[in-house]
Amino acid sequence: MQFSPTSRRWCCPTLIKSAPTSCFRTGSCSARPPFKLPRSQVTVEPVMFLATFSVAMQAPLSTQYLWDRISEELGYNSSRTSECSNLTLNQDPLQKEVETLTAQWNLYINLGGFSVGLLMVPLLGSWSDVAGRRPVLILPNLGLALQAAVYLVVMYLKLPVVYFLVGRVLCGLSGDFNVVLAACFSYVADISDKRSRTFRVAILEACLGISGMLASIIGGQWQHAQGYIKPFWLVLATNLAAALYVYLFVHESVLPNPSARFFTFRHYKAVWHLISKGRTTDEEGRYDRSKLWLYLLCFFIVVTIHFGSRELYVLYELSSPLCWGPTLIGYGSAVLHLAYLTSLLGLKIMQRCLTDSWVALIGLMSNLTGLVVISVADTTELIFTGYALFFLYMTTTPVLRSKMSKLVDPSLQGAMFATIACVESSCSLVASGLFNTLFTSTLHFMKGFTFLFAAIVLLIPSGIIG
């Protein structure tokens, strides 16, 4: 990447060669927003922060809302203390039915959204390489805002929870949160060189943790005090604010092609060639695709376990013997998101004396031990101990992203991040189906078996990386 001092913006070397000199003097080679942040290195970090904040606040609240609506329809009083104060093996059958139905609706809703998003992620990610990053940064935030609006209508009118599925599908058509991730990482790759890229990516990862932690605390406390509707208005507002920020302040990082088509199979082919042939279309450079496949497999397993376990934590905490309320659920989610910061700090320290592979292995061991403890947790103290053991578990995914990014030429970063985003979308799809089904199927003999199963599966990427 090179910086153009006359236009005060970063430009790709390939674009510098093809664009006329006057383009860079005037700055018209990119879509300029109405305003500019003076002397600021801040670019897409607020977009990542706001989008993550909305998703992190919405996810546990929507699960709790499903629990409450289903409990109300079945006549189950989830506020009863007798179930929580008496540790007994004979769990209330009505509570089991509420758990099962809530997990099933979570499955249906997520399957609907993620299956649509799986088709849109590679399309939007690859399209951004020719049409520019700004449209792809704005579109998914508007989709997330539309989903929040649909959820609000359901809550105001007490509509059937099946309408949650409508909101998720509409959000999936805009690419969902995975496109926000892909666009932000691609933008950072556009404006940074190899030496500074790791630090810029680390800042984005920190935004995930900080915003998720704040959203978890605020969401749990707010829902406990004033119900579900007002927190979801904040979710809607943050998504709209993220889209408005992109429109007003974020400069384009690639040269948009006005004739670029959106609905074309060439975008899918670019991602397919990257995986299957070790190159993209019209590219001569090749790399060891077997390494890419192995890294993608490790990434798929680790992220699938992250997504699947995270969906079940709220259900695990709501039911006996824990029976947590919104406040404790918010604190628990905040501790989980705090691991993003502790992992980044640990990553920076460990890189001084360890290779990236060892850092990833330590992260996997942190994840594995935490899951084992949670699988047998029957007290609040024990489950917080499991969450605390996750303090390095987010060191694995940044290392894998970095390894895959270094495999390909700098000019192929857009296609690479589109591929990673597609894998992340697949992870969400598989995690929703596998973990919710496994959880409901194993409730009768071991409530935490799903977490123990996830810990065992983590031995696979440990063996590959080691």
UniProtKB/TrEMBL annotation:
For molecular function, the Gene Ontology terms on record are: folic acid binding; symporter activity
- What's the short name of a Pfam family annotated to this entry? MFS_1
- Which keywords does the record carry? Cell membrane, Cytoplasm, Disulfide bond, Endosome, Folate-binding, Glycoprotein, Membrane, Symport, Transmembrane, Transmembrane helix, Transport
Q: What is its main location?
A: membrane
Which membrane topology describes this protein? Multi-pass membrane protein
Substrates-to-products reaction catalysed: methotrexate(in) + H(+)(in) = methotrexate(out) + H(+)(out); (6S)-5-methyl-5,6,7,8-tetrahydrofolate(in) + H(+)(in) = (6S)-5-methyl-5,6,7,8-tetrahydrofolate(out) + H(+)(out); pemetrexed(in) + H(+)(in) = pemetrexed(out) + H(+)(out); folate(in) + H(+)(in) = folate(out) + H(+)(out)
Q: Which GO terms describe its cellular component?
A: apical plasma membrane; basolateral plasma membrane; endosome membrane
Q: Which InterPro entries match?
A: MFS, MFS_trans_sf
Q: Where in the cell is it found?
A: Apical cell membrane; Basolateral cell membrane; Cytoplasm; Endosome membrane
So where does this one cross the membrane? 105-124, 136-157, 201-220, 232-250, 292-308, 328-346, 358-376, 412-439, 445-465
Instruction: Answer whether the UniProt record assigns the keyword Glycoprotein to this protein.
Output: yes
The signal peptide, as residue positions, is none
Family to which this protein belongs: Belongs to the major facilitator superfamily. SLC46A family.
Q: What is this protein called?
A: Proton-coupled folate transporter
- What organism is this sequence from? Mola mola
